[in-house]
Write the structure tokens for this entry.
Amino acid sequence: MIVAAVLIIIVCGLIEFWLFKQRTKNKIQNTKIQVFNTRLEAIKALSYLPSSKRTFFREDLNEAVNSFFIQKKYTALTLIKILPNSTSSYLVLRYSLDQMAGVEDSLPNSLENGLISRIKTQQQEQKNLATNLTLTGESKWQVGVITPLFYQKSILGYLIFLSEEKSFPQEEEINFLSTVARIFILVLEKFYLNKVLTPDEQIKAGNVIW
Amino acid sequence: MVILLILFSLILIIELVRFYLSINRVKKAKKELKKREQEQHYLNFLTTSAVEGGGSVAENFPRYLNYLKEAVNWNYHSIFRLDEATQLLPIRFTGYLPEWYMRELSTRVLVKVGDISIGRAIATKQPVTINAAIIDPRFKDVTSLVAQMKYQSLTCCPMIGRLRTYGGFCTYSEYKNIFTLHDTQFLLTCSNLFAAILENRLLQNYLKTVKHQIT
């Protein structure tokens, strides 16, 4: 009987230890699920923008940035748009969590230039580049991800996401940021088509039987 | 001693129950996590395809629906086109639905804006979820079709573009009460992106036609 009691105590102890490990694992899984849910929230909010009726690009961009900041990791976003008929003239718009209105500039700063030249020299202009910024001496930002806005064989510009967290982005995070960048491209395409076609032409095109 | 042994046995039973519940919890969380990853992957695929261009609307949309089935494993999907002149909704694309279903739904059932689930989704511009199609009064006209197709629940979302409402997007499942709020949000995101992609594609096609005529 004593042996049976001791055996039961040992088995219960092992089960408790295993339960403790599983609780930790479950907690990590639930945290990851929450992160995915937040990302879906951000993408859902962004998905309304390509169909929005706003007439100015900055208005859509402000709304896009507000939607993007639903996820908490990346707290700064910079859009670098290459101006038409030029490869070295830019429109730079910088947004951060505490400065939602966006700061406009005509040239990328040293950090942004560094990221652009790295992505160009690596001939990865269709792909993203995630980099550890602590090496560059930028004290505030720990990680930067630059995503080219690549549309039908040409580059429209770049989106740079900056984070103060040290964790390096995994593949699914890069995929999420790429999805966000492509929604920005759809918004840019919408404004381009709105500029090139008259309202009557657009209505005529939209009424085609597809 | 016997009492102690009984007590310890009870504790062991409780521990075993906790063990079993913990396994189920971890399995459920793992399944949810995999589903989220696949949803993310699908949205990545959809936006990549939209931006790369190429292919007509008739080529791309069935591909999007088929890939959606592989990604999230609901049974069927379909896209209805809105005919604004007649306010009818003929079925346009399907994912994994048989051809006879398309024929039946196009000829026997004329879905109007405001009718059943897809019509209501378009009229109200909100997603509509039906948890038990067989007993839902909105489906009384198509009960035989629903029984034949063996779908129990469905979610319909409108496809609203900048210029107009293009139609609606439906997802069907063979299980009752399967669509959660999260699923509805994901499907609404997909339908928003479908509408944007469709609109941009139609405008691009028109632009190419105009440019071709000029040259």
